[in-house]
């Protein structure tokens, strides 16, 4: 591999990471706006859960569509357009005064946000071969984890400065505007010539055939089911942990805000670590790495449930570990798309897997909101999350891989 191509590889990976680094400013800001929004607009938490549900449904539908489109259209343009539309939708929400309008706009935002991940994964797969795929996807997933860090940090600062909830939908997304524009200018969909022999070139197939090839791959569908449970657990933490730690008197206990900040920090560290470990320690056995991570996550969720909220040192440590182990395995899920399906189906596979994940997460949000309303305690969500982590570990643990298999070769 020549040095020029190596520089191009890293440039494409880093610019895609830079763009996605700020994508969550238009999505994970919602959990931080909940307290103010619910109080001002008199919205119960069950309804808040359904608003979050609407975004996740919009995102899952978008994954089903945009993952397939990523195998045919320009990933560079799809990511950029999705970012710009998401920014406009966030700003529109900041001027809304009804739960219904917010729900409709948040659903649209979910679709626009879905235009980034699968196309970005397709672009990375075009530039990185199988030998380093775990590493590349580990870095990409780390960028998503760091995106949560950025969003949490900005939200904490804005809240501590006394800004109202509406500003959480206006100010952070300005960073996405910058990163998406840089991506649009710098990114290229694929190398001018495929110099990496490990990237397979396969005959093109119709969009319907791509769906059929993915859906009939049993191992991939079981992995996607496990990803669904992992996503329910992950979003349960991302969305409800701020609500849990903000409480009714967070201004009297500002340290609680920084405990929540350690959750995305752990997620970012876990993504990079699991991506590298899947290629080294686990010998590219992504299934084993995922099962291990989700099993540990279940134990940590139980520990959070029984730990006293006022103990910031213990709470912060557990949040860091929860983020590390519940999100880290995601870096191992994504390479399973090209590993099990072949490079030409990467976008469709990632899209379908992510659709499954967000569909599950969508139904998880109102369930957790209802759990809080019924029990009267946000602490109860961690028992539900522990069960979800175990279900993910069990599902993925049933898959046995013997090398890479391509759906096209099996057709």
Structure commentary:
There is one protein chain. The protein is mainly α and 411 residues long. The chain is 74% helix and 0% strand. The chain has 18 helices and no strands. The chain has helices at 3-20, 30-41, 45-70, 75-94, 99-113, 117-127, 133-160, 173-186, 207-215, 218-246, 255-279, 286-306, 312-327, 330-333, 336-341, 346-375, 381-397, 407-410. The radius of gyration is 20 Å and the shape is globular. The two termini are 32 Å apart.
What is the strand and helix layout of this fold?
Elements: H1 3-20, H2 30-41, H3 45-70, H4 75-94, H5 99-113, H6 117-127, H7 133-160, H8 173-186, H9 207-215, H10 218-246, H11 255-279, H12 286-306, H13 312-327, H14 330-333, H15 336-341, H16 346-375, H17 381-397, H18 407-410
Helix pairs in contact: 1-6, 1-7, 1-8, 2-10, 3-5, 3-6, 3-16, 4-5, 4-6, 4-8, 6-16, 7-11, 10-11, 10-16, 10-17, 11-13, 12-13, 12-17
Strand content: under 5%
Give the H and E element order: HHHHHHHHHHHHHHHHHH
What number is the mean pLDDT?
84
Number of strands: 0
Question: Which blocks of ≥5 consecutive residues have pLDDT under 50?
Answer: 195-202, 403-411
- Helices, by number, come to 18
Structural class of the secondary structure composition? Answer: mainly alpha
Gross geometry:
globular
Distance between the termini: 32 Å
Quick recap:
This protein is mainly alpha-helical and 411 residues long.
Question: Which properties best describe this structure?
Answer:
18 helices; mainly alpha; 411 residues; single chain; disordered C terminus
